């Protein structure tokens, strides 16, 4: 950003990229795509570190846990999932929502996840 020069093109999704985020230490970028996948990328060289396939639903948003070890993904259709950033394995599905999940956040220490939904309620996990 200092020079205004593009450093890398993070290409590999099969659909439009809807959201991007950085790890807390800035060593990785995270992208969420309409194709239902998330990907982590090295900010050093632009290479894909890990792909998270997800369900065949639009992935609206994804973010790193504060320690960078977990990725939280929010999908269209009442679904949020936690993924291991290192292995790419789904470690938990947060699925008790009866309506779409609008947003989600990790607690600053990473111990909790808060999801907000269209049913006038939030859920603490």
TrEMBL record:
<feature type="repeat" description="WD">
    <location>
        <begin position="10"/>
        <end position="51"/>
    </location>
</feature>
<dbReference type="InterPro" id="IPR015943">
    <property type="entry name" value="WD40/YVTN_repeat-like_dom_sf"/>
</dbReference>
<dbReference type="Pfam" id="PF00400">
    <property type="entry name" value="WD40"/>
</dbReference>
<feature type="repeat" description="WD">
    <location>
        <begin position="94"/>
        <end position="125"/>
    </location>
</feature>
<dbReference type="InterPro" id="IPR001680">
    <property type="entry name" value="WD40_rpt"/>
</dbReference>
<protein>
    <recommendedName>
        <fullName>Target of rapamycin complex subunit LST8</fullName>
    </recommendedName>
</protein>
<dbReference type="InterPro" id="IPR036322">
    <property type="entry name" value="WD40_repeat_dom_sf"/>
</dbReference>
<keyword id="KW-0853">WD repeat</keyword>
């Amino acid at each position: 950003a200092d020079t205004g020069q593009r450093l890398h093109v993070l290409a590999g999704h099969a659909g439009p990229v809807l959201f991007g985020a950085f790890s807390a230490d800035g060593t990785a970028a995270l992208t969420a795509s309409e194709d239902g996948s998330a990907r982590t990328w090295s900010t050093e060289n632009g290479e894909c570190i890990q792909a998270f396939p997800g369900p065949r639903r639009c992935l609206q948003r994804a973010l790193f846990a504060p320690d960078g070890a977990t990725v939280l993904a929010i999908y269209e259709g009442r679904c949020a999932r936690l993924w291991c950033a290192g292995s790419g394995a789904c470690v938990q599905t947060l699925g008790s929502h009866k309506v779409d999940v609008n947003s989600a956040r990790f607690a600053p220490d990473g111990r909790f996840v808060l999801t907000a939904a269209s049913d006038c309620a939030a859920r603490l996990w």
